[in-house]
Prior knowledge:
Number of domains: 1
Number of strands: 13
CATH class: Alpha Beta
Distance between the termini: 39 Å
Low-confidence stretches: none
CATH superfamily: Inosine monophosphate cyclohydrolase-like
Mean pLDDT: 97
Strand order of the largest sheet: 11-10-1-2-12-13
Helix content: 10-25%
Largest sheet: 6 strands, antiparallel
Amino acid sequence: xxxxxxxxxxxxxxxxxxxxxxxxxxxxxxxxxxxxxxxxxxxxxxxxxxxxxxxxxxxxxxxxxxxxxxxxxxxxxxxxxxxxxxxxxxxxxxxxxxxxxxxxxxxxxxxxxxxxxxxxxxxxxxxxxxxxxxxxxxxxxxxxxxxxxxxxxxxxxxxxxxxxxxxxxxxxxxxxxxxxxxxxxxxxxxxxxxxxxxxxxxxxxxxxxxxxxxxxxxxxxxxxxxxxxxxxxxxxx
Length: 237
């Protein structure tokens, strides 16, 4: 698979929706993930990321403007032992609870489908980073309608073992802007992962469409020690 420029990819797409990047830093020592949200409606744009234990959650920036919390208030990131879960919805909790009962990542998602937000039927995208004994692997999942038909759910899981230093994969909810919004198609995209968390976060944030971007989370985890550093950027301050 040809590596694409993540910066160019984001700058040329005004509405990828919500996106997950997972990979390994160029020096090979860090497991890396990023998650961003965008919004077109007042309700979707009225959000910020806040820290919640070892993870994060979304909350309304202005509670008086919150009209429907069902699909926008959730915990995008949770940590279960040596596993970090990243998703675009409350399936974070489904994965956490399932894996806590010894189910696999894929098995945990069997009880979920795409979001019930007709006519978009927004895909549920999920990722998991697993660090154990100095080894690092990750997986990405997308649950989507069958070309906009909500009677069928298509499930795809992509697993990456012994991931290469400096490489990662990017998946997002929407192919591009539209009405209805077209779902992401194909495999997660191969992208470069730098060593510098601040540099990576700033590149992502400045590349996202200025009108539609809402919040960004980036985390670098030391594969040897499990210690991590994170960064949150919110448009609403």
